[in-house]
Amino acid sequence: MSGDVADFKSLKKDLKHRMEQTVEVLKKEFAGLRTGRAHTSLLDPVVVDAYGSSMPLNQVANVSVPEPRMLVVSVWDRSMTKAVEKAIRDAGLGLNPAAEGQSIRVPIPPLTEERRTELSKVAAKYTEAARVAIRNVRRDGMDSLKKMEKDGVISQDEHRTHSTEVQQLTDEAIKTVDETLKHKEQEIMQV
């Protein structure tokens, strides 16, 4: 009977790991949502035409955040300054860079109320996708438990007990997702 405990422990560990990964993915998606505050990942999608090819911004310049609403892009090669400035302007991020020698200052405009609402909806959509992913992990776990019971690895009582544990894991993961959304919405709505 000790084999069933080990089987469930490895199943539980796998389910917990998959749920935690889902929460991490959600946090990465949230990091890409602009909140009116400057952060270096804001310029990650910018691609610069440099040296005859398209390169990510981080391969031709360094991005820093000297103030909450300002990014400074330090271009390594002075001759690339105009190309980097153009790439930031044309990236569709709603930013208006200003070159000063080898540095480019990128002020982050405050978000409009309409844009804040839009971002909140996007955050909610990401959150719902994470909840669905967590529920799918729970379903996989419940299916595994049914199979273990059917194969005689665990008893009906153990199945019930383990099902409760899987549900608790799910509830904790969804609570974490909801707290993450609440925090992000506060960040978005902060003026």
CATH architecture of the largest domain: Orthogonal Bundle
Number of β-strand runs: 6
Helix content: 55-70%
Approximate strand percentage: 15-25%
Q: Compute the average pLDDT.
A: 88
Roughly how many Å apart are the termini? 59 Å
The biggest sheet, with number of strands, parallel, antiparallel or mixed sense and barrel status, is:
4 strands, antiparallel
Write a structural description.
- The chain is α+β, with helices and mostly antiparallel strands and 191 residues long.
- It has two domains: 2-33 and 112-189, Ribosome-recycling factor (Topoisomerase I, Chain A, domain 4); 40-107, Gyrase A, domain 2, CATH 3.30.1360.40.
- Helix content is 59%, strand content 15%.
- The protein is built from four helices and six strands.
- The chain has helices spanning 2-31, 81-90, 113-150, 156-189; strands at 47-50, 53-56, 61-67, 70-75, 98-100, 103-107.
- The strands form two sheets. Strands 3-4-6-5 form a four-stranded antiparallel sheet, with helices on one face. The protein has a two-stranded antiparallel sheet with strand order 1-2.
- Helix 1 packs antiparallel against helix 3, helix 1 (2-31) runs parallel beside helix 4 (156-189) and helix 3 packs antiparallel against helix 4.
- The longest helix is centred in the last third of the chain and has 38 residues, at 113-150.
- The radius of gyration is 24 Å and the shape is elongated.
- The chain starts with a helix and ends with a helix.
- Belongs to the RRF family.
- This is Ribosome-recycling factor.
- Residues 26-189 form the Ribosome recycling factor domain.
- Its main location: cytoplasm.
- InterPro entries: Ribosome_recyc_fac (IPR002661), Ribosome_recyc_fac_dom (IPR023584), RRF_sf (IPR036191).
